[in-house]
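Issue 218. Parser rejects a valid record. Input:
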Amino acid sequence: MTNYFAFSGFFCYTLVMIQIRKSWYDILKPEFEKEYFKNLQAFLDQEYARFTIYPPQDKIFNALNHVPLDKIKVVIIGQDPYHEPEQAQGLSFSVPENVQIPPSLVNIMKEIESDLGILCQKHGNLQRWAKQGVLLLNTVLTVRRGQANSHKDRGWETLTRKIIEIVGKRQEPIVFLLWGSYAQSYQSLIGPQHLVLKAPHPSPLSSYRGFFGCKHFSKCNDFLIKNGQSPIDWR
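Output the parser choked on:
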């Protein structure tokens, strides 16, 4: 049974219990005790009390709760959560099964099907990837409804940069999929033992500049197999 550490009263206005996998809490505890994180907590207290914020509080650390550090095979870095109702679930690019698949994820699935010659499932819930060791990490973990990047530069980036740095120092090989200049700005945190695959963002605005045809999914699986790990079922 997975052990979790619960932030009791993490958001003081709502008194919600926020869970994070205990192994991640132990790793990140020094960050949670720093001033920037206390300031972030105070900001989030007010935001959740006054506005509609995504994802739901119990899903903020969803990416970490799905994958412990020693089980990570692949990292996909996103920016911030989807900002429309019912979309965000704490996993980058992922939406619940009953929600229309967003354009960037549609393009990701198109590339998977072209690259691997398979058919993807007809929904956008990527928990199936997370359960196989894919860390779907946004660098900002919350957002105000209808306002993209509204929680940018409030402290989340400091925490998630530390997470990426910790993962990037792990000795066992990992594949990092860095799509777009924003994700690629984190490359300096990734050790040489890992495979870094870069391409334009899968957004409709940039996917035709090199995301389509990048073959990242077959390259990823080839690397995992070469290093004695099971490949990801990207369907």
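Fixed in the parser; the record now loads. DSSP finds eight helices and eight strands in the chain.
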